[in-house]
Amino acid sequence: MIKTGVLGAKGRMGSQVCRTVDAAGDLELSAAVDADDALDSLAGCDVVVDFTDPGVVMENLRWCVAHGLDVIVGTSGFDDMRLAVAAEWLHRAPGTRVLIVPNFSVGAVLMMRFAQLAAPFFESAEIIELHHPAKADAPSGTAARTATLISAARAAADLGPSPDATASEMDGARGAVLDGVHVHSVRLAGLLAHQEVLLGGHGEVLTVRHDSLDRASFMPGVLMAVRGLASLPAGLTVGLEGMLGLG
Ligand SMILES: NC(=O)c1ccc[n+]([C@@H]2O[C@H](COP(=O)([O-])OP(=O)(O)OC[C@H]3O[C@@H](n4cnc5c(N)ncnc54)[C@H](O)[C@@H]3O)[C@@H](O)[C@H]2O)c1
Questions:
Q1: C-alpha of residue 192 to centroid of ligand 1, in Å
Q2: In the CATH scheme, what architecture does the domain 106-212 have?
Q3: What is the distance between the alpha carbons of residues 73 and 48, in angstroms, rounded to a whole number?
Q4: Residue pLDDT tens, the chain, 247 long
């Protein structure tokens, strides 16, 4: 049995993770921790899963790594600076693993890969991410990661910036720019988590779109991560790609 602790256990994602862990024959829900609960009950867990808030996740992660606990982080907001801080903490806790997963949905991971594969073949690339209005951060972690992947693929193909003659603009009209890629965030009642990557070339547009229609879409990825964490090398891993055999 894999002893599993959940941080953010009363939240939308955390409560579903608790139910999923409870229902899995090979996992045991050893600790369910939410805001204001002591973290001590996580001691002894084989794996801790964090679905909390970008404002508190670093403190949770610091505590877990300092206590030698392996952690899977689903909470968004992990930019390069946060990844570097996590790597530094792990350097001082040899043998401990942290897996940061910007998106647990297998379809979303494939959407990112398809966008990365297509990026060198199109002169323009922009991202539209669309989420439920209770989402605290914008742009989404998935959009940020997609922008990074597209940017690296474009750089490797010696593509310059996407063409854009905008000479004057209202603040925000062209979205946020991440690694040179424009990202537009929509927050709308009725939505859950959706993303479109628009790739434009000569007389054609390729759209790669993914829709998470229910939080259940994240659970197979969460289970895969919990079951596979012990076989990852110690230190920091980002994304489910390795576990899915996508390199
Ligand atoms: N990686 C993915 O695939 C994925 C998918 C969906 C959501 N997310 C991200 O997961 C995070 C949580 O999303 P949600 O919709 O469940 O949010 P939510 O607001 O419903 O839940 C967050 C929970 O964390 C709790 N919490 C706050 N501070 C805490 C602390 N210090 N310790 C423990 N618990 C604490 C809150 O009380 C709440 O119950 C967000 O950052 C969201 O963007 C990631």
A1: 14
A2: 2-Layer Sandwich (3.30)
A3: 8
A4: 999 999 999 999 999 999 999 999 999 999 999 999 999 999 999 999 999 999 999 999 999 999 999 999 999 888 889 999 999 999 999 999 999 998 999 999 999 999 999 999 999 999 999 999 999 889 998 999 899 999 999 999 999 999 999 999 999 999 999 999 999 999 999 999 999 999 999 999 999 999 999 999 999 999 999 999 999 999 999 999 999 999 7
Helix axes of 106-118 and 219-228: crossing angle, nearest 10 degrees:
90
Q: Which residues are catalytic?
A: 131, 135
Pocket of ligand 1 (CB under 6 A): 7-8, 10-14, 33-35, 51-54, 56, 60, 74-76, 101-104, 135, 218
Q: Whose CA is nearest to atom 18 of ligand 1?
A: 11
Domain residue spans of the chain: 2-100+215-238, 106-212
CATH topology of domain 2-100+215-238: Rossmann fold (3.40.50)
Three-state secondary-structure class, residue 245 = coil
Q: What's the pTM value of the predicted model, to 2 decimals?
A: 0.88
The candidate with the shortest Cα–Cα distance to 47, out of 23, 27, 76, 19, is 27
CA–CA dist 57, 37 (Å, integer): 14
Determine the distance separating the centroid of ligand 1 and the alpha carbon of 202, expressed in angstroms.
42
